[in-house]
Amino acid sequence: MSHPPDPITRSVVQHRLSSIVAEMGEAMLRTSYSQILNSSRDFSLAICDVSARLIAQADHIPVHVGALPWATRAVEERFKEVAPGDVILMNDPYHGGSHLPDLTVFVPIFDGSRRLFWSIVRAHQSDIGGATHGAYNPAATEIWQEGLRIPPIKLSEAGRVRDDILDMLALNVRNSHDFRGDLAAMIGAAHMGERRMAKLFRELGAGVVEASIESILDAAEQQARAVVSTWKDGVFFGEAFLDDDGRGNNDIRIAAKVTKRGSNIEVDLSASDPQVSSFVNSSHANMHAAVVMAFAYLIDPDTPKNSGALRPLTVVAKQGTIVWADPGRPVTLCTSHPSNEIVEAVIKALAASCPDRVMAGWGRRFRIAIQGEDPRTGRGFIWHLFHARPGGGASPGGDGWSSIGEWHSVGGLKFGSLEVAEARFPLHFRQHEFLPNSGGDGQFRGGLGVALDLVFETEKPALGNTAGDGARHGSCGMLGGEDGVPHRYRLLSTDKPPRTLRTKEVGIEILPGDCLEVRSAGGGGWGPPAKRAREARERDRAQGLVTDEAAKARLP
Questions:
Q1: CB 430 within 8 A of CB 102
Q2: What is the 3-state secondary structure (H, E, C) of 511-540?
Q3: In angstroms, rounded to a whole number, what is the distance separating the alpha carbons of residues 158 and 140?
Q4: Which residue ranges does the record annotate as region Disordered (predicted)?
Q5: Which residues contact 47 (CB under 8 A, 6 or more apart)?
Q6: CA–CA distance from 67 to each of 89, 220, 274, 299, 352 (Å)?
Q7: CB atoms within 10 A of CB 20
Q8: CB under 8 Å to 141, separation ≥6 — which residues?
Q9: Domain ranges, ordered by start, for the chain
Q10: How far apart are CA 376 and CA 552, in angstroms?
Q11: pTM, entire model
Q12: What does the pLDDT look like over 54-74, one tens digit per residue?
């Protein structure tokens, strides 16, 4: 097709692409085995082309999708010959992945003999082997202690599954049943994307689809540049700090120098602190994804988030720093931290360039994984805490959402039904409700965290490990807004004093009847507190979002 498609055809193709990746997501939700996928939805879907350009994505986990072009590039470099029916699998952070728990499946999309696109599914596994259960190892000093590394490999060749490879993978994880089921769901969802694209080729012709995609990418670039061109030119600086690395190094700095000229943005993270010996380092692809997230949050929401929209953005970083670790360093926490802090540093910098678009900080991730035995079945289990989500940051548009989650997922990660969790695992949710006074004050208030009391109904001791941040540094306030209240997690036992849990520790003994007391972080406030409307403060007080004493103290 030599001439550009008409606007109606382009719109039809754009919406079909969106519906294809959305349908892939629904297939994942309905066919995956583990709670981390079929309840918390820790997966993402996308279509990339053979040039590793992001063509379309579903609204799931931004930090996943922002790294997929790098994974696609690694696959293209590894395999020069790809046939219909091939399935390629990878997860290695040093081959284009983000961190080991995120498996990525690629299914090629052909038009006749021409390979045009990839149907891609990335999903977080509940376990990936390694020294500790649950895919995160706070004690790791090298990536080989974090789990199974998979460079791009062919799991299926011309439609024939490599059972020897699949058996080897399943043998190296703790819950092979869920692993096999989740991987089958990923492959099925990717094949669905392949089939839907083939149908689109039959209806419109592959040439029309290709030309429409070029036009879609160009239009997204024009829309993004039109927004960026309205921002103030200059060189701006922002910084954010990780609490620690779990090894005694505190306040690890992520520094962003952002240069804005015309419709171009350059983000330079080179001045960030050196890499460390623990899993808070970032892989290269993950670092790029975090910068892409920050940029995407500031352009118009109806602009397609594809490679065209990212053309105004350039990323500069230095290998050997916390944001781009040398090969072999542990990086498993990176999709949460330092991703959140990279986003925070970039948005803080751009607050001086586009103050009407920046939002305050979202809560940081503080997860705990429990390995134990369910007395009702006698079978082992691994359970990941996705409940008690932190609050979202406020924005010029209003107060932050409560219990929405972290900046790296912006609501894409869900906490599932309490009743379903209690049915599947030996748990009792004694309390799960908004935490008053946890959101940062401001003209617009940060969203609230959650007060959770979780009782373990096991009959044998269980083991926990934590992985996260944000127990010292609360979600940042923006443009005069106050920070949100940080996390506070404690383990309460009947025969031991309460113990405050650190964000990065392993081997936590959890006895039958113990209670995990979670008080999750609130989001940051936006704008000076003095500008908050009296009616808003009275509403907060009436709804119990702010206690009477705190509300009265704020009233003018």
A1: no
A2: CCCCEEEEECCCCCCECCHHHCCHHHHHHH
A3: 38
A4: 521-556
A5: 17, 20, 21, 55, 56, 57, 109, 117, 118, 119, 120, 193, 197
A6: 15, 19, 22, 19, 27
A7: 23
A8: 277, 278, 330
A9: 7-220, 359-555
A10: 49
A11: 0.95
A12: 999 988 899 999 999 999 999
Quick one: tokens of 180? 């096999």
pLDDT at 96 over 90: no
Whether 334 contacts 100, CB under 8 Å: no
Q: What is the pLDDT of residues 326-346, one digit of tens each?
A: 999 999 999 999 999 999 999
What share of the chain in percent tops pLDDT 70?
A: 98
Which residues touch 74 (CB under 8 Å, ≥6 apart)? 90, 95, 96, 97, 151, 152
Task: Give yes or no for a contact between 472 and 500, defined as CB atoms under 8 angstroms apart.
Answer: no
Cis ω before 330 (30° cut-off from 0): no
CB neighbours of 167 closer than 8 A, spacing ≥ 6? none
115-128 core/surface letters (b: 16 or more CB in 10 A; e: else): bbbbbbbbbbbbbb
User: In angstroms, rounded to a whole number, what is the distance separating the alpha carbons of residues 441 and 524?
Assistant: 7
pLDDT of 1 higher than 50:
no
Query: Side chain identity at 64, as an amino acid letter?
Result: H
What is the β-pairing status of strands 462-468 and 504-510?
antiparallel
